[in-house]
Amino acid sequence: DRPWQKLVTEFSLPTIEQDILLLADAQEIDLKYETLFAYLNNDITRKWPTFDLVLRMSIATDRQAEARRCLLPEARLFGSGLLRPMPSVDRRSWLATGFSAAPAVCHYLWSTFSLDPKLASFVEQRTASLDWQGLSIAWDLGNRFSHLARRYAGRPTDLPAVLLDGPQGTGRARAAEAICRELGVTSLLRVDLDGLRLSGENTGQLIRDLLLQQRLSGAALYLRGLDTLFDAEQRPSSESRTMLQLLSQVKGPLFVPCASATRWREWLSPTRAVAFQFELPDYSTRLRVWKHAAATFGADVTAPQLQALADRFTLTPAQIAAAAAGAASAGIQPDGPTPSCIDA
Fold this sequence. Notes:
This protein is of the alpha/beta class. 47% of the residues lie in helices and 11% in strands. The strands form two sheets. Strands 3-5-6-7-4-8 form a six-stranded mixed β-sheet. A two-stranded antiparallel sheet has the order 1-2. Helix 12 (238-247) links the parallel strand 6 (220-224) and strand 7 (254-258).
């Protein structure tokens, strides 16, 4: 159950890759290794492990060729994001390339969780604490979600990608939280894909960092803004294609809210997926949501008024919650006029 053994098992690391990863983590264990690395590199300014150092260490076991393959960009250690090359200010040889462990790896080995600062502008961590009773969707749709969660209980990484097809505000995010809770997944990383695309950073590296963070923390991913990656003819740009290709490699629960016209089948073709259709709630669902929202926000509204509101206005659960919150803050009286916030 130790973090190191879990990490080795999760990524199926052979001994030589374990040695390289441990070398990268040494400075996080004790700063004395910076001095040792500078000595071994014969350069006081290079206080980190280098490719040359790895190859020299592998001479004793006659595994230099295997070690060299482990240091390639597409190899497991760098391809998964566990390791990252250090930027070089001068044009040194490949052997002089330094490398370090990703921050998420260091936090994981110390049994702590901290969102990578580079991800903070477009990633929000949520605790999946919502149960089925808190869902503001039709009963039959809720039962389908419950059945899916029970089917994959205890093995959340086997869950197919879940497409949540419907308009905003219809309870898609809350349904994802409820499924995670049933699966035993306690954390949900909500990702703003448009914010990721416009971050100005290397999107490929950011996505690798995101997938590593998700994998190490055992969290689910909720990808918001998929529609923004397609143009009016539903064609993704070259940059969007790269993003979608990387995101299709998610290992763990994946939830994707989208509009009906989005060509999600194209980019998820290598991945198993199941789609759920979210519609505007019917009268019985609206009434149930109005009652729950009024009780939650303390809105002083009578039962006949709630029935009238549910019958008159076809609103999404999010709009109903906003209206109930507005009514509560305005101090609505049972016999008073219908507030403007609800009229909206």
